[in-house]
Amino acid sequence: MADVFSLDNASEKLEALDAFIDVQPSKEDSLIAVLHKAQELFGYLPSEVQLYVSRKLNIPASKVYGVVSFYSYFSQEKRGENTINVCMGTACFVKGVDKVVDEFSKQLGIKFGETTPDGLFTMKDVRCIGACGLAPVVMVNEKVYGHVKAADVTTIIESYKNGERSE
Ligand code: FES
């Protein structure tokens, strides 16, 4: 396994993480808060970071891994700057979301779970996000797009490429 220092700008990020850990009242009870902070700093929680947290908090690595894999909020894979969540729920499917997925895949060259080589986009499939009246629905970061058609895909991608609506 690679060392945590092999990650991008690891020293600065670890310094910030150490500072955060130092002000926690109880090391044992701060695991989730520390993992949140680590993900905010690194963008994801690879095994190197999990191991580092385990050592710093003196918590078994298996417990850290258990928490990371339990909460879907935590990601063990590197994500792009923007996450395109495509709803694959029934309403969206019936309204033809598959054509939207095909268009994203064609334009970005990625499938669900993959990230573009430039690190700008990750595409994920999600279950119903509770906006069925707007089907088909695509959520980019926190922004919801309703009634999306394949013809809208270029405009959506371009707006994030220009960084205007990155959140
Ligand atoms: S099925 Fe897509 S929002 Fe409900």
Description:
With 167 residues, this protein is of the alpha+beta class. The chain has two domains: 4-70, Arc Repressor Mutant, subunit A (Orthogonal Bundle); 82-161, Glutaredoxin. The chain has seven helices and four strands. The chain has helices at 10-22, 31-42, 47-57, 61-70, 90-94, 97-108, 153-161, and strands spanning 82-87, 121-126, 138-140, 143-145. It has a four-stranded mixed β-sheet with strand order 2-1-3-4, covered by helices on one side. Strand 3 (138-140) and strand 4 (143-145) form a beta hairpin. It is elongated and about 50 Å long. The model has no long low-confidence stretch (mean pLDDT 91). Residues 87, 89-92, 128-129, 131-132, 135, 137 line the site of FE2/S2 (inorganic) cluster.
What is the molecular shape?
A: elongated
**Which H/E pattern describes the elements?**
HHHHEHHEEEH
CATH C-level category of the largest domain: Alpha Beta
Strand content: 5-15%
Total number of domains: 2
Instruction: Determine the CATH superfamily of the largest domain.
Output: Glutaredoxin
Average pLDDT, rounded to a whole number, is: 91
Radius of gyration: 18 Å
**Count of DSSP strands:** 4
Strand numbers in spatial order across the main sheet: 2-1-3-4
Distance between the termini: 32 Å
Estimated helix fraction: 40-55%
CATH architecture term of the largest domain: 3-Layer(aba) Sandwich
Q: By helix and strand content, what is the structural category?
A: alpha+beta
Unreliable stretches, pLDDT < 50, 5 or more residues? none
Give the helix tally: 7
